[in-house]
Amino acid sequence: MIGKKNILAITLARGDSRGISKKNIVSINNKPLLQYTTDEIVKSKYIDDYVVSTDSDEIEEVCNNLNVNVFRRKKASDTQTTAEGLLEVLDYYEKYDYVVEVMCTNPLKTVEDIDGVIEKLNETGADSVVSVVRVWDNHPLRIKYIENDRLMNFYGNENPDVPNARRQDLTPPAYVRNGSIYAMTYKQIVNKKLRIGKDVRPYIMSEERTINIDEPRDLELAKIILK
Predict the structure, then answer these.
(1) CA nearest 63: which of 93, 96, 106, 32?
(2) pLDDT, tens digit (0-9, with 9 covering 90-100), for 71-88
(3) Going from the N-terminus, what domains does the chain have, and what CATH number goes with each?
């Protein structure tokens, strides 16, 4: 609880994954990926309740061993949105003031990040807060598309020096969601059926605490970093 606001944290952990088999419980240095998230969740100053939503017997067993509550979701389809997955959980739980989705594909995030997102949601009165990380080499001013075999600028910038500019000189600074934490008001997710509202604020995470395990090479990099 923060102030008088009670908080439910949810991790959606489906059993299958296209990129990495059983990704959510794959072992990273003798520890299931999911546990890197649950270990930080229990340190939170604000989270009142936490549940892992899964369609997998194996993930449920891991959660039981970690003393983590489990919600057995319906078999997740490839077309189901994340918001729909969260709403499925909320249909069975009492009303909370804030809902925080803590994704388990970034094992580098810490309780500082989780609580920081919650604090910003509460302090700003926003509809939602999303964790982001700064983009450097892939700044929008450097991104192109191809038309008639020619490189074209998305933003119509005709300055030929922009592609060669130092990355620290590209302005304004650009940020991308880093697949770690989404916090929202209960009203936002239940009424709008969306995680992100019109008033969405950023929580900036460091590059050192950002990785999104999606492909095998991401997994190998995470193993090296965490070791």
Answers:
(1) 32
(2) 998 876 667 789 999 999
(3) 7-132+176-226 (3.90.550.10)
